[in-house]
Amino acid sequence: MYEYRCNGCGKLYEQLRRMSEADTDLVCPHCASHKVERQLSCFATGGCGSGGGGGRFT
Ligand SMILES: [Zn+2]
């Protein structure tokens, strides 16, 4: 699961993708824009806290 942010409409959305395809053919489901950036998910940062937005380990 990856998190993406659309620069066209500014919405965040999640999509299940293979790692090799994570950055290919990105199309916003809301406005069909291709200006989509992948966000760092909790998988990528290694820590998925219950509060959300954490991901910082001591
Ligand atoms: Zn969009």
Walk me through this protein's architecture.
The structure is a single chain. Helices cover 7% and strands 22% of the residues. With 58 residues, it is mostly beta strands. It has one domain (2-45). Strands 2-1-3 form a 3-stranded antiparallel beta sheet, with no helix packed on it. The longest helix has 4 residues, at 42-45. The radius of gyration is 12 Å and the shape is globular. The structure holds zinc ion. Residues 6, 8-9, 11, 28, 30-31, 33 line the site of zinc ion.
Q: Could you state the order of secondary-structure elements as H and E?
A: EEEH
- Which ligands appear in the coordinates? zinc ion
When the domains are counted, the total is 1
Radius of gyration of CA atoms, rounded to a whole number: 12 Å
Average pLDDT number: 82
Could you say which structural class the secondary elements and strand pairing correspond to?
mainly beta
Taken from the alpha-carbon principal axes, the silhouette is globular
Helix content: under 10%
Features:
single chain; 58 residues; mainly beta; three-stranded antiparallel sheet; 1 helix; 7% helix; 22% strand; globular; binds zinc ion
Structural topology:
Blueprint: E1 2-6, E2 12-15, E3 36-39, H1 42-45
Antiparallel strand pairs: 1-2, 1-3
Bound molecules: zinc ion.
Can you summarize this structure?
With 58 residues, this protein is mainly β. The chain has one helix and three strands; from the N terminus they run E-E-E-H.
